[in-house]
Amino acid sequence: MKKSQLLRLATLIAFIAIPAIAQEGGGRVLTTADYARAEKMMGYNSNPLVFHAGGKPNWLMDERFWYRITTAEGSEFVLVDPARGTRAPAFDHAKLAAALSTAAGTTYDAHHLPFTEFEMTPDSQAITFSVRGRQWKCDLQGNQCSAGSTAPVSGQRGPGRGGAHLDIPSPDKKRTAFIRNYNLWVRDLAAGKETQLTTDGVKDFGYATDNAGWVHSDSAVLAWSPDSKKIATFQQDQRGVGEMYLVDTKVGHPTLQAWKYPLPGDEVVTTIQRVIIEVDGPRVIRLKLPADQHRSTLCDDVRCRGSEWADAEWSPDNSELAFVSTTRDHKQANLRIADAATGAVRDVLEEKVSTQFESGWGSVNWHYLGATHEMIWFSERDNWGHLYLYDSVTGKLKNQITAGDWAVTELLRVDEKNRLLYFLGLGREKGRNPYFTYLYRVGFDGRNLSLLTPEEGNHEITFSPSGRYFVDNYSQPDVPSVTVLRDAEGKLIATIEKADISRLVATGWKPPVPITVKARDGETDLYGLMFKPSNLDPAKKYPIVNHIYPGPQGGSVGSWGFVAARGDTQALAELGFIVVEIEGMGNPLRSKKFHDAYYAKMGDNTLPDQMSGMKQLAARFPWIDLDRAGIYGHSGGGFATAGAMFRYPDFFKVGIAESGNHDNREYEDDWGERYQGLLERKADGTTNYDDQANQSIAKNLKGHLLLAHGTMDDNVPPNNTLLVVDALIKANKDFDLLMLPNQRHGYGNAANYMTRRRWDYFVRYLLPAEPPLNYEMHPPRTGTP
Predict the structure, then answer these.
(1) Distance CA 775, CA 38 (A)
(2) Do 63 and 466 touch, CB atoms closer than 8 A?
(3) How many C-alpha atoms does 645 have within 13 Å on its Cβ side?
C-alpha cells in the first residue's frame, strides 16, 4: 500500500474512532493533573495537614494523663495535670532523642521519635516504650536511655493454635490468660510459669475461642474477676456447624482455607457453654443452664470491641457473675446471675421485642450493682433508648431513670457511692443535629439530669480512673475539634488543644455541607453531608453520586465529628461530581421505630429515602443533574448499590458494588437472623429471605454496573457477588466485574487500585468523559517504628 493510501486510511480510522470515544466519554478527556488534584483530597494527603487535633488521653493512676499530637514540625507528647491545671511536654523531647540516638546507634530527632505510645514508671521518673520489638527505658530528663528485653511484659503475643494471639492480663497485672491447643492457660509474669486451666478442649469445642462466622482469631475471650483469682469464659461448641471455604491465587496447588461459618437457616449453629474457672486450683465450674446462643445484645458476636466480652460482668466481691443470654433471633434477652462457687444460675429479668433487641451503642448499657442488689438496664420499650433501675433480687422495676423523645447511647460511668450515672445521649438538645452526642449526668432516681458538655457538636469523652475529671473532644463535620478538660461537674478546667486546619484550607480543601431532607414519608427529617467540587461553577450541571452504607447497625455518614477526609468522597467530588451521604430510615441512633423501618425487608436498604433526599437536593440546587445519578458502596453498601441498580434502574444510571452481601442467606447467621428474622421455608418452596436477594432481580439492570470483590474475603465470602454474576449472565446483561486476587474484605494493598477504578468508572459512564490511562495513586510510604 502506498504512503498516501496509508495516510488516507489512518485519517479514516481516526474519523471513525472519534465518535465512538465521544459517545462513551462525552467528548471530554480528564488529565493526569485532574486526577492528581483530586488525589490531594485523599486521607493520606489531607489528614496530615490537620494539627493539634487533640489525642487519645492515656490516664495515669495519679489522675494525670498524656497524649500525642501531630504538629507542623512532626509530633509531640503532652502531659496534663488536672489538679494543677497545667499542660506541658511529657519529657524533654530533644534530650530524649539525643540519648536514644546514642544508645541505639541511630539518629532520631525530637519531632519524629520512633514510638507513638509509652508507659510511665511508677515513680514517674522514666518512660518505657518499644522500638521495632525492643524495649527501651529513658529517664524523663533525657539523660540516659537503656535497652531492655525484646518481648513486651504484658499483653504479649504467645503461642496458640493456628498462630499468634493476644494474652489477656489480669487486673493485678501478675498473670495473663491465653489459648493453647483449644484449652485455656495462664502465665505467671514474674516466674514465667505456665499453668493449664482446662484439659478437655478439642477442635471445634475449645475454651475462650471466638472462631465463629467472620471472626476467626485465637485471641482469648474472657473476663477476669476483680481479685484476679477467677476467670469467666465459655467452651465454644462448633461441632457439626457448616464450613466456609476459600482458596488463594498462586502458581501451583492453591491453599484451602476452611473455617466454621454458620448461615441463616442452618440447623446447627455455634453455641457457648459458660464456665467459671478458679485459677489457683485450677477448678472449672460449669454454669447450670443449657448452652447459650453465640450472640450479644450489642453486636453480631460475643466479642464486640477488641478483646471485650460483651454481656458478662463480675460483682465487686467476686462472688457472682451477671450475664445476658440472647436468643438466636435477638428478640429475647434474659439477664441472669450465676453463683461463682456453685455455678447455680437465677433469672433476674427478661425483655422481649417484636423485632430485635439491643442494649445500646458503643458498649452494653446494663450494669450490675452487686453491693446494693440493683441493676441498671437499657431498653427501647417506649420507642427511645433509656435507662431503668431494677431490683436484682426480685427482678422488679424500681424506677425509670431517663425518659423523653431522645436516646441514651452509651453508659460511660456509674458512681455507686453518690448514685449518679454519666452517659452519652443524643436528640435531646432541640434545634441541633440529632446525631450530635453529648455527655449527661443523672441520679439513679432519675432526678437532676444535667448537660455537662453544652457546646454544639459531637462530643467524645474519656474519664479519668477516679471519674473526677474527663477530657472532652468536640467538633462538627464542618467545624474542627476543640479539646477541653472538665471536672465531674462539667466545669471547664482548661482548653488543651484547638485543631489547626490552616494548611489544609490552603490546599483548596472545603468542608462537607450538612444537609437536611425529608424521608420517604415526606415528614421525617433525614440528615447527611454533601461534598461539592471546590471549584464548583453554579452555571454548570453536575452528576450526583450517592455514597451509601445502609446499616442497619450504622449509616452512611459514620462519624459526626470533624474528619479531613471521609474515604474518597471529596476526592471524587473534585472530578466533577456532587457526592452525598444520607442517614436513611432504618439506621440507628434515633427512635426504635426509625431503626426498625425496614426490619425483615433488608432489600429496602434505605433506598426510598436516598432517592427522596436526592430529588429534594436537585430541586434545591439547580447545579445538580438528577438525570445523571450514580451510587456506590462497600459491604452492606455494595449490597445496597446493586439493589439500587436492580430495583430502581430508571433512577440510578451507574453503580459500583464492592464486596456486597447480596444474599443474606450466604452471609453469617447472626446478621440476617437479627435483621431479617429466622429463615422460614414455606410450603411452596419460597422463604422469607427471597425478596432481599439481589440475584433474583438482577434481570432488571439497565445502567452500568461494576461488581468488585476480594477473592479471600472471609467476612463476606465472594460467592455473594458470584451469585449476582451468574444471574446477570443468565439474563444476558452487560456488566463489569473486578475480582481482586488474595484480598480480604478491605482490599489491603489493592485498595488504592480499587479507588482509581471507581473514579474511572464514574468518569467514563456518568460524567461522561475519558479518564487518564492507568493513573497511579501515590500514597506515602509508611514505616513501622
Answers:
(1) 12
(2) yes
(3) 33
